[in-house]
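Cross-check.
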Amino acid sequence: MKPVAVIAGAGPAGLTAALELLRRSDFRPLVFESDSQVGGISKTVNYRGNRMDLGGHRFFSKSDWVMNWWQDILPVAGSGEAVRLGYQNQSRDFTAATLADELDSKCMLIRPRLSRIYYRRRFFDYPLKLNSETFANLGWVEAARLGASYAYARSFPRRAEVTLEDFFVNRFGDRLYRTFFKDYTEKVWGVSCTEISAEWGAQRVKGLSIMSALAHAVRSAIRPVNDVSQRTVETSLIERFLYPRLGPGQMWEEVASRIELAGGTVSLRHTVVGLRVEGEHVRRVRVRDEGTGEERWIECDAFFSTMPVSRLVELLKPDDASVLQTARGLPYRDFVTVGLVVRRMNGDTPKDNWIYVQEPDVSLGRLQIFNNWSPALVADPATVSLGLEYFCREGDELWCQADGVFIDFAAAELEKIGLIRLGDIVDGTVVRVPKAYPAYFGEYKHIGRIREYVDRIPNLYTIGRNGMHRYNNQDHSMLAARAAVDCLLAGSRDKGPVWAVNTEEDYHESAGAP
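Predicted model, tokenized:
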């Protein structure tokens, strides 16, 4: 009998772990996903032929292993211009000459990246550029004040970076922080930046600063980047990325198919509802079929969890009340995407992949233009497919609005800020995503209690965004999954390499973040 690994969740982390186990061991992975499709937050929702990417997923990583892993699943198609992938084992040029007469639907496209800020009913480059357009939008007086504020922050930085506000002010100055970061960040998280740990900035903004943005602008002007790997470029500044032709869900649907062809199983609409720990190990997992309501116990040799760690701890029933208290108090941020199909936008359709909406008179947080991610996402090329993203909390007023009411509300907001006319709307839908963003405030300060507790169970591996309560990108989730498989196959009890993914050790050492 082959050893069995039960995997809770068919997102990037769970599916990567399953495929790696099949490729590298005798383990038979059994993946259980409570949703009706794979991909987690990286799934693609198909509404009447219009495909929606929930949150926007650039397929880009500093890891050669991840970039090669993706291309093994979906090869990169030609881009119509000479573009060098530039990462290990895949450094050849891709040009129009490499394309077949018809583009294979199972492929990755090389896409240009553009994201801007919409503020004062105007577009600002993100990150901000010191050009005539920026100065015209801000006004020379305000631009001078922003510069003076930045100079002051560099001369007199906040020595202890404890909060996210400290992190932003030290890198951009107080005035720029209050103009372009504070309101949007608080719209996303629903709390003040003074309540969010600086650790969030270390993981999400990483090396981005005024100086890094300026240096990148100068380098790009002198020698444009024609290399998808963009090794010397901060992640927030990349100019190209890979993208599945039919959206991110296409990648994970293909991975799920390969898992089943190799002897694993991926069961949709099945939820892990119980765990049995015997001695030190997870020995049995209880799974419920959401279609029939039937529950059954499954024996296992290893358990990989991508479910919210708060739920995992509830199922483990720890004796330590403080661990349970921390788990129950971990905060999350949920979001809603309103998909709108319109005949046209006001003026020329922006070329942006997504737009950060900083306008204080609307609740809208971010706007995606799906045509610019991949033309194949849009059913009718004569229309524009939009994703309006709202950040909220499950059960609050926004979350609980009826779909029709929410569509009307969102459309009215987009008209209010001058981007569409209501008469141009063709269709709309609403998609709610619970626990989309693990939050870095409240009981998060005690997350170490949970890590210490779950790491005592040798054959339990917590991976993925919710499994680790860490705001990971999908490549980070994949790297954590690989590290967990490494740990299992090596028979190691040290989970340190799993938790080390997507941590900025240099930042922690220099700034003393909590």
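The chain is about 35% helix and 25% strand. The mean pLDDT is 87. Passed to J.P. for a second look.
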